[in-house]
Amino acid sequence: MKTLLETIGNLNRACHRQAKIPLLIIAIVVLIGFTMMACSNPDDDDVSIPLIENQWKEGTINKANGSIEYTFIAEYGTTYRIWLNDRQGDGSYTGDMEVSFRRSNGNPIFKNKFKSAWQIAIPYNLPFDLDAYKRIDKIYIRVELEDNDVANAGKFAIVYSTGINTSRPPTP
Questions:
Q1: Residue 37's pLDDT is what?
Q2: Do 23 and 102 belong together in one domain?
Q3: What is the pLDDT of residue 4?
Q4: Residue 23 to residues 2, 104, 120, 145: CA-CA distances in angstroms?
Q5: Which is more confidently placed, 124 or 154?
Q6: Is residue 170 in a domain?
Q7: Lowest-confidence range among 23-32, 84-93, 142-151?
Q8: What's 79's domain CATH number?
Q9: Following DSSP, what letter does each residue of 75-101 receive, concatenated?
C-alpha cells in the first residue's frame, strides 16, 4: 500500500511538471489497485487437501516440523468419524503420525492431539453456532509426525466417514 501511494505521488509530481500524464490514468491505477486488494480471496492461501467421504488419502511426511493439512465440510447434526492408518494401523504404512483438528475460525476442536485412530475412529459432531447461525463449517485436520520425531517419518492414510456406528472404510 505504501508503494502504491508513493507511485501515485511520483506520478502526480510528474504530471504537474510535465503535464504529460493525465490525472485520469492515476485514478484508474488507484482504482485497479484497491479493487484487486478488495477482491482477494482469503482462501487463496489455503493449501489443504480436500477429503472425500469414504475415500482414503495417502500422504508422506519425511521431515521434522513437516505436516499435511486436510479438510472436509461438516454439517450440523451429522456424526463424523476420522480414521488414520499409519504404523499403528494395518501394517501397510511406515509413518507414525498424530492428528489435530480445528474449525475454519482457527479454534481447536479437541484439546489434545490424537496419536491413534485405527481401531477406534475419532468421532466429531459439529456444534450449532448460535452466534453465526452456522449449520456447516470447514474442518481442518493437521497430520504431523508423532512427537515431531523424524524416526516416525513415512507414509500414512486418512479418511472420514459419516454415521454413529459406521465401520472403517476398506483400505486401498
A1: 43
A2: no
A3: 47
A4: 19, 43, 67, 57
A5: 154
A6: no
A7: 23-32
A8: 2.60.120.380
A9: ETT-EEEEEEESTTTTSS----EEEEE
Q: Do both 34 and 103 map to the same domain?
A: no
Residue 83: domain span: 45-162
**Best CA proximity match to 61, nearest among 139, 157, 171:** 157
Whether 171 is covered by a domain: the verdict is no
Instruction: Give the H/E segment covering residue 48.
Output: none
Q: Tell me how crowded residue 168 is: count the other CB atoms within 10 A of its CB.
A: 19
Residue spans of beta strands (DSSP E) within the chain? 49-50, 57-61, 67-75, 79-85, 97-103, 117-125, 136-145, 154-162
Neighbours of 133 (CB within 10 A): 7
Q: Could you tell me how far CA 168 lies from the centroid of its own chain?
A: 24
Number of domains comprising the chain? 2
Residues 146 and 66 in one domain: yes
Is pLDDT above 60 for 79?
Answer: yes
Domain-located, residue 154: yes
